[in-house]
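[Meeting: bench + compute handoff]

Bench side (C.D.) handed over the final construct sequence. Compute side (W.E.) agreed to return the predicted structure before the next meeting so the bench team could plan truncations. Sequence as handed over:
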Amino acid sequence: MTLHRAPHQPLHPALRLALARCRTLVVEGPDGIGRGALIAELARQGFLVRRASGPLHHVDPTQPYRELLAAPGRLAVDGSLVHELVYGPLRRGRSRVTWIQALDFAEAVAERDGAVLHVTGASDDAEAAEGYERALRTLGQHVPVLTLDARSAGLPVRGPAQASVGNSQHPPGS
């Protein structure tokens, strides 16, 4: 999926803020939101895009992500640690990522001049959307979290259309 943006159309303010202030962006959001278009836009903006390969490691699920953070330059990570914190309990009754591991990862992202881009939008899974809100509110105490509504940012969204809930921005350092 690609983001088709006219050359004269400005970037969404939350995305513009993230691009200006962050060297590292971790893109997170519920299934069906359309993170792929945002990832493609970050690549066009000069970010090296990476995703941890394979399933989460059984002993240390954050290890592949810490290794990704060792890359030089601007980095965009298609996240899945928060995905596991949210969907693990919903689908299997527990998460394979502990909160200590998630908080350590959040701090590592912050140390790399980074933030988490929380992509929101129409989702047919209200329980998962609420889980993301809770998880990112907690992680936001350790890493800046910028919320980007995919619909108002012009990103294609795969889920059903619903009323916009708006954007909230938590700039790095706040």
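W.E. noted at the follow-up: The helical segments are 13-21, 35-44, 63-69, 81-92, 99-111, 126-139. C.D. will use this when planning the next construct.
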